Structure prediction request, 466 residues.
Amino acid sequence: MKADSKIMFATMKPWKLFFIVAMPGMISMFAMSIYSIIEGIFIGQKLGEAALTAVNIAFPMIFINFSLSDLVAVGSSVPISVALGRKDEKTANNIFSCAIVMIFIVSVITGTVMMFAARPLASLMGAEGQILDTASRYIQTYALCSPLSTVFFAMDNYLRISGYVKTSMFINIFCNVMTLVLLLLFLFVFEMDVVGSALAACLAMCCCSVLAMIPFLRGRALLKFTRPQFSFRLIQKVFTCGLPVFLNNIAGRVTSILINLSLMTLGTKVLGYGGGITAVAAYAVLLYSADMGFSLLYGMSDSLSPAIGFNWGAGDYGRVRKIAICNYIGTFTVGVIFAVVMFVFSRPVVSVFVEAGNTALLDLSADAMKIFCLGMLFRWIVVATQSFLSAIEKPFYATILSISFALVSPVIVLAVLWSWGLVGIWFNSFGTALLTSVIGVILIIQVQKEIKRISAKKEIREKECL
Prediction:
């Protein structure tokens, strides 16, 4: 189940490495998206439009909770990979051990805040009445399980770094199977509402967090637990490297809140009384439908990130470039195919999330999907570039791209297209991806110039040593 990651990252042909590393990563993320999609189907078909709206309002807060832990996980993965590339196992193990402690502390704090602030936060995001009550209980369920469930995604990163690529994939698949079984049990046997969905996901993640720790606890993984030695420099590096992804996630949630509030306003204005709930539910349908495509892009890029970081640390810039090209070609292929499929089959796709007879929500969601899916034609550039910049320790560039994609560009597009009503919000995905991809191309060109300068200096030093 385990491959020698150092040999694999350093010597394997780039395209072979791509299929061995990226494909399991895509399958893992795909498996995770399957749960999300099925959750959306069950909620939409069994609990209805109001439940979809409540979950969509609550999810930004839940995502922020996971984003804080992801900050440490991603932020530590980059220096760990670079340290391994420099053959400094002691430093890599210390960063790994410190990161686990930091994730636990952060998750306890954020879980506590979510537990007591769930209702006022949901209210600020536009929830009222029964939707406010449902959204609050959904948030609190995740808050209770936060200390252990948030470790799950971090351990996935560390398994892949240690060469347990297939193990990571199988644990992710098992997590989703377990979640689906519990979801069926809670919703159809115990007749629970959306809290049953949240509880199913949390219990499965907690269980799989323990499973993912086993190779490390037994001392068989490349990374090993040591007595953590904290330092200001270590914490600063972890937070600096993880900041782009974190800011992207946080900014994205802020944008989601703004879009939900806009949907409430414009939905009522365009569709009449109750139209705001229908508009938010339609947006939830779009996100559930597109989750599979997003997960494939991120799964591919995240899986190749350790290999890029390893070779960057080893100074093999030519190999870094070849692996990055494989990633760009792969994400381009996935992005275009997904956009075409969503455009052609928009109505059949969205219909699986909408309860029978709700033609208003079905028509609105189907029309919106034909516009929303166009963002995938450019989103692959953003995802691949952000992952690449983070992997080669360019946090400033990655942060620029993240903030642009998650907050600046969508807010600009939202303001510019406000007069278009709901259509303007459906176009937000396309406009945001287009604007940010231009910035991404500019940043990549700049990085290529820097790599050429570094390579030239390296060649001069090598010649002087001869």
Observations:
- The mean pLDDT is 84.
- Residues 6 and 85 are 8 Å apart (CA to CA).
- The chain has 18 helices and no strands.
- Residues 5-465 form one domain.
